[in-house]
Amino acid sequence: MATISVTLKVWRQKSRNDSGRFETYFAKDINTEMSFLEMLDVVNENLIREGKEPIAFEHDCREGICGSCGLYVNGRAHGPLKGTTICQVHMRSFKDGETIYVEPWRAKAFPIIKDLIVDRSAFDRIIQAGGFISVDTGSAVEANSIPIPKAIADLAFEAATCIGCGACVAACKNASAMLFVSAKVTHLALLPQGQAERYRRVIKMVEQMDAEGFGNCSNTGACEAECPKSISLTNIARLNREYLAARLVPRQYDN
Amino acid sequence: MSTIAKTAVFSTSIGKKLVMALTGIFLITFLIVHLSGNLLLLKGDNGEAFNAYARFMETSPLIRILELILAVGFLFHIVMGIRLALENRRARPIRYQVNKATENSTFYSRFMVWSGITVLFFLLLHLWNFFFQHRFLGLGAKETMYETVVRTFKEPIYSIVYIIAMVFLAFHLNHGFQSALQSSGLQINTNLGKRIKSIGMLFSIVICAGFTAIPLYFLIFT
Ligand code: HEM
Ligand code: SF4
Ligand code: FES
Question: Were both Cys, which of B52, B64, B105, B153 would link to A222 (CB 3.0–4.6 Å)?
Answer without folding.
Answer: B105
